Predict the structure.
Amino acid sequence: MNDLTINTDLARKILTGFIHSEITRAGYSRAVIALSGGVDSTLSTYLAAEALGPQNVLAVRMPYKSSTPDSLEHAQLVIDILGLPSITIPITDMVDPLIARFPDASPVRRGNVMARARMIVLYDQSEAFQGLVVGTGNKTEILLGYTTLYGDSACAINPLGDLYKTQVRQLARDLEIPEPIIAKAPSADLWVGQTDEGELGFTYAEVDQLLYLLVDQRYSPDECVAAGFKKEFVDTVVKRIQRNQYKRMLPPIAKLSNRTVGYDFLYLRDWGT
Amino acid sequence: MKLTLALAQINTRLGDVPANLEKHLALAKEARSSGADLLLFPELSLTGYVLQDLASAVAHRPTPDDPIFQPLLQASHDLDMVVGFVDEDKRHRFYITAAYLSRGEVIHTHHKVYLPTYGLFDEGRFFAWGDNIRAFDTRFGRAGMLICEDFWHASPPYLLWLDGADLFLFTSASPGRGLRNEPQLESARWVEHINRAYASLFTAFVAHANRVGYEDGLNFWGGSTLFDPNGELLAKGPYHEEALTLSQIDLDQFHRTRARLPLLRDERTGLVMREMGRILSK
């Protein structure tokens, strides 16, 4: 077993500094976060509240009619503990008319509609609250592409994107996030009974070990098999990483001129600040 | 002889040279009023680090008539300063540069000779490679300047040592990376190790000023250090926070350390030269 343990004091310092720096440099002082009541969004919310002050972080709850009551309750717990402003906007009335036109739509298709409806609500709250959207995606799901493009992946900044799920849980424990939030089965909660690990076919604890070797330690797939991972598992994960590269990039622009956005027009977002 | 050295681990505004200049002048004043004789700013302290296409737009010449260097040279009448900037040479090549300013003059400039162009780094794409490693005389003795990746290689500090440098003035804009279950990042641990090693191996003072702040998702970790000729840590700035760290250096320490440990006396440069010639002629 590779030790993915991190120094959480250092992580906390870097990540709260990052949130504060990148939001204030963009000319804002506030954040909005889609708070599902899961460990990722709860951790992002804790970090943002510490970075900006709880009064400057709007927690947005966006239940669908089939969402588990746990989600709303756990989110409320976080809102109460941190003393956050919050708003609850059910997405059922937005989502159902579209889904009704396509009664045979697959669960994935329905799930994507829900994730993108939430994005619309969240970005509307971003303008209303004058806060930037703080993302909640972790390194595991970014690498696996376990996310809806322009849905839950949409954000202005992402403090968790270089932490594996295992490390998210470790940091969450050290920040004293309520244990039921950390311990429950991770779920996108897009349909009844959905769990991340059920849908992916492996546990986060397993895949984080493999991703750490493949990505951080630059092991080849063969070396991962030699290190003790089942070949089928390695192949599945490698394929997933490769197939989902498009979700980790801006759409490619067809180059025509001498200077093209994305290729040779290169500036950081923090340009001039 | 004693000298008070100040390490200015600052945050910078990316591409906003006038704003960064203002911070330099304010810190020069503060350092001077605290008794500093020499003030060390980090790599690219006047411009910010991930410049990309801004590199040419923020370039300056370190001359008395340059609008940025004119006030810096003025301030250098009060204390010596090392500042980081982009130098545009007469033929319009752009270098990551450190300049040593003293009593209204530019005593020395160093163009970064190792431009990391791997991993998260892309310096070789935007900058020209420096081609000289030279020690130079200051009013505190002979010194040498290196910029970040320069001293990740062993040869530049070694060359400075042989060229007479006893004060090693290192500057960085080092992006933090390698979070583990340790109180400092892997990048911080590495840099601290090698700076302590250089101080010990060369029985010299090694000062390192590293910046703080963020540029997009990159964090800069600070933790500026000063090691003495025995390899002892004299001063250290905090991680990830702006700070002006002052420490007094006793230049008589060279006499004591080198009487005990004559590594410089015994260095066999002729042997090095001969073996280098053999190795390179293979």
Remarks:
- The helical segments of chain B are 17-33, 69-75, 123-126, 155-162, 186-201, 253-260, 263-266, 269-280.
